[in-house]
C-alpha cells in the first residue's frame, strides 16, 4: 500500500496557516487515493532525537568506515530509527512556516538527524554526492506572515524554499510540488490569498 508521511514543522496547531493548508491537501489526497495510508510526524512531539557531539562523532566514524564506541552505537540506533520512519513512506508532505526568513529549527534538526552516509546520501571523491531517496516525491506547504515576492528586502528574504527544496533534491527527491501562502505584496494581507492557496493545495493533492 502506498504511504504518505506528513511532516509538520509548525508548533501552532489550529492557529497555523501551514497546517490548515496541509489539512486541505490531506483531505483532497484521501479523496483521490482512498487506498493509500497517511501518517503524520509532528516534529515537535519529542520523538526526534537530538544531534549533538556524540552523534556528530558517530556520523564521521561511519563516513570513515570506523567502528563506533558504545555511546555512539546508542545514538546511531536512534538516528537510524528516525531515518527508517522517514524512509518507510513513498510520498511526503511538509508543512513549513517561515521563521526568520528560513525554516523552524526543528525541521533543520530533522534534516541533520536523517542526512547520513549510506542512508540519505552516498559520496564518491571523484563524482561527489549522490542522493539515495530515489523514486519518492514530495509536496511542500510554505507559509509566511511578512515575506512575499516583490515586497522588497525590508520585508525579509526567502531562504525557506531554497533551503528545503535544495535539500530534497540533494537527497534524491526530484519530484517536488510547492504550495505557498504569502501576504499580498501591496497590502500585506494574508487572507486575500488563502482561498487561492487552498485551491492549489487541493489540486496538487488530487494529482499527487
Structural notes for this entry:
The chain is of the alpha/beta class and 208 residues long. It has a single domain (3-207), classed as Rossmann fold (3-Layer(aba) Sandwich). Helix content is 38%, strand content 20%. The chain has six helices and seven strands. It has helices at 17-32, 53-64, 70-87, 105-114, 160-170, 194-206; strands at 3-8, 37-42, 91-97, 121-124, 128-131, 137-143, 175-181. It has a five-stranded parallel sheet with strand order 2-1-3-6-7, with helices on both faces. β6, α5 and β7 (175-181) form a beta-alpha-beta unit. The longest helix has 18 residues, at 70-87. It is globular and about 55 Å long. The model has no long low-confidence stretch (mean pLDDT 95). This is FMN dependent NADH:quinone oxidoreductase. Its cofactor is FMN. It is an enzyme of class 1 (oxidoreductase).
Order of helices and strands: EHEHHEHEEEHEH
The helix content, as a percent range, equals 25-40%
Mass-distribution shape: globular
Distance between the termini: 15 Å
Gyration radius (Cα, Å) is: 18 Å
CATH hierarchy, class: Alpha Beta
- Strands, total number: 7
How many helical elements?
6
Would you tell me the structural class of the helices and strands?
Answer: alpha/beta
CATH homologous superfamily placement: Flavodoxin domain
Strand order of the largest sheet: 2-1-3-6-7
Q: Mind telling me which CATH architecture this is?
A: 3-Layer(aba) Sandwich
Low-pLDDT stretches:
none
